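Regression test case RT-17, inverse folding.

Input:
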């Protein structure tokens, strides 16, 4: 079934990214927006736009009844959730499908299984993929937590069973601190994800965070598109990603890619997604989690493979087979993405909402900027602080880095503070230049 019209259940740069893919496929688009987003670029660029509520996400971008009403009013064929908001909400996927709107993503059952990290870990174990030692299910009481922690050895890490982004995540170094941190992690998880369930894993110190991009069609074909290095993080929030990883050679790449594919086949995965691994100092990798949506950092994989992941997502949802086979996938050059946020790195990364009074977006060979901002645009405090994604591509990693540094020096945003200076410092850091990075990199800078 070829789609004629798609509603985009999101905002900001990812909504624009989806609109662009739809335009190139000849598909009409419907934007939804909160009242404070009335002048947002995704509203301007879509063929139709519907206001679904006030600024609060709960009353707009997270309101399933209002989004479904917008689907009905605009008579769309499908819904693309982007990332964040309802993108990994299995109930939303079920309601879309139940009302006759194709959900552009995995099946609700798969989203539900992957959304519970403890369940996903057990599925990975059954699929024969290495997993980090820890609890096989969510922790129910302090005594069982103590037994698990003693068995696998301290330090351990507590994680929210549902959700991510570092929320509901705590590192524990001793039995004495275990109960206190369980209570804190559970409370954070309940607030952020509506469930206080947590699980325990062995904490691997200073690993690399490597993820593998997969695509699966509804005919059983699954491919992997290489890996991304996502180790540059602050409080478990990614800041910089690159593809390919400087730590992964062809042999390891194939092992990780085939493991990701095996997991996807085992779970019946369709659409775009990522299988995320931790890579330790001995080059052993362990399954960490799966993300059942398009990733913020998908552009770097597009740049080195030449594959439009969003278009493939849409074609898959239409029932089309993948437009390529595994043997057609190759890695060309190196790409880096910097996430520029409206935050002040000199003041503990405090959010800096406000009006953009001047803006200059750089260009040149090998440069891509995915953003929704423009001069006089207002950054609101209600949503994610991401204002732009800068992507540089070079024939080599060094060329991609020097190009990124040049672009960061040219990028001008006035009226708000941004993290541009931090990214520029990283591009010039000796250890980063040598590729000697891990998830503790930022703390050591």
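Golden output:
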């Amino acid at each position: 079934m070829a789609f004629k019209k798609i509603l985009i259940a999101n905002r900001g740069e990812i909504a624009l990214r989806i609109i662009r893919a739809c335009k190139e496929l000849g598909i009409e688009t419907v934007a939804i927006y909160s009242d404070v987003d009335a002048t947002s670029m995704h509203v301007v660029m879509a063929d139709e736009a519907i206001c679904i509520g006030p600024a609060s996400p709960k009353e707009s971008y997270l309101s399933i009844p209002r989004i479904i009403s917008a689907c009905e009013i605009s008579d769309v064929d499908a819904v693309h959730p982007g990332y964040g908001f309802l993108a990994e909400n299995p109930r939303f996927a079920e309601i879309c499908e139940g009302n006759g709107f194709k959900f552009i993503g995995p099946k609700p059952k798969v989203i539900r299984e992957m959304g519970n990290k403890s369940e996903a870990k057990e599925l990975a174990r059954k699929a024969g993929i290495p997993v980090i030692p820890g609890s096989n299910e969510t922790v129910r009481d302090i005594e069982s937590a103590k037994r698990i922690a003693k068995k696998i050895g301290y330090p351990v890490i507590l994680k929210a069973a549902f959700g991510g982004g570092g929320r509901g995540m705590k590192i524990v170094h001793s039995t004495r601190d275990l109960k206190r941190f369980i209570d804190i992690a559970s409370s954070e998880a309940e607030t952020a994800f509506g469930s206080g369930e947590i699980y325990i894993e062995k904490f691997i110190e200073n690993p690399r965070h490597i993820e593998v991009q997969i695509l699966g069609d509804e005919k059983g074909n699954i491919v992997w598109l290489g890996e991304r290095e996502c180790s540059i993080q602050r409080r478990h929030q990614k800041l910089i990603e690159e593809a390919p990883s400087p730590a992964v050679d062809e042999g390891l790449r194939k092992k990780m890619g085939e493991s990701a594919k095996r997991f996807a086949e085992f779970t019946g995965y369709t659409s775009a997604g990522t299988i995320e691994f931790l890579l330790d100092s001995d080059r052993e990798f362990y399954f960490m989690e799966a993300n059942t949506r398009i990733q913020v950092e998908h552009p770097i994989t597009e740049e080195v493979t030449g594959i439009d992941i969003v278009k493939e997502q849409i074609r898959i949802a239409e029932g089309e087979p993948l437009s390529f086979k595994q043997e057609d996938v190759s890695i060309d050059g190196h790409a880096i993405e910097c996430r520029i946020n409206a935050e002040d790195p000199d003041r503990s990364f405090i959010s800096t909402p406000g009006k953009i009074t001047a803006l200059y977006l750089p260009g040149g060979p090998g440069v891509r900027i995915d953003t929704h901002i423009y001069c006089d645009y207002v950054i609101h405090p209600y949503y994610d602080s991401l204002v732009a994604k800068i992507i540089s591509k070079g024939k080599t990693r060094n060329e991609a880095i020097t190009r990124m540094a040049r672009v960061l020096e040219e990028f001008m945003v006035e009226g708000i503070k941004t993290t541009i200076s931090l990214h520029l410092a990283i591009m010039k850091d000796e250890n980063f230049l040598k590729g000697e990075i891990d998830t503790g990199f930022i703390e050591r800078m």
